[in-house]
Design a protein that fits this description.
By secondary structure, the protein is an alpha+beta fold. The chain has two helices and six strands; from the N terminus they run βββββαβα. The chain has one domain. A six-stranded mixed sheet has the order 1-5-4-6-3-2, sandwiched between helices. It is globular. The termini are close together. 27% of the residues are buried.
Length: 137
């Protein structure tokens, strides 16, 4: 299955206040087979830039503010295959999570990798393009 690249358009209402960026919560203690510490993975873009992502099991990913993501299938031997790269588009964190879980399930992803380093939608879109260019099949 070819990797999908998602180009959502993010628009803010004039005068809308910018929410403070926050980190996703660690995996819950009750997640089967998961420790509460965060796991990280670094993805390299076509530009050569690296982007540190937090790794979550698809079903244990927390609600997400504005962020970049890679939907991933992690194989039994530890290899990771990117299935979709994009960025969240809603101001509602619960909607971002619902969209990622839905797309991830359709693509048979079992991990969500989250990058919180972009300050605005334009930067998030540029990061998504850079990563997609490097990981296109």
């Amino acid at each position: 299955m070819a990797m999908q690249h998602h180009h959502p358009v993010t628009a803010k209402a004039p005068g809308a206040s910018r929410k403070a960026r926050r980190e996703p919560a660690p995996c819950p203690q009750s997640a089967p087979g998961q420790a509460s510490e965060r796991h990280e993975h670094v993805w390299r873009g076509a530009s050569g830039r690296t982007y540190r992502h937090w790794v979550f099991p698809l079903l244990w990913c927390p609600e997400l503010p504005a962020a970049n993501y890679v939907l991933v299938r992690r194989h039994g031997d530890g290899r990771r295959s990117p299935l979709a790269i994009g960025h969240t588009r809603s101001e509602a964190e619960s909607l971002n999570l619902a969209e990622l879980r839905h797309r991830g399930a359709l693509l048979e992803a079992n991990e969500v990798h989250i990058h919180m380093g972009a300050a605005d939608a334009e930067t998030r879109a540029a990061i998504a393009r850079d990563l997609a260019a490097a990981h296109a099949h």
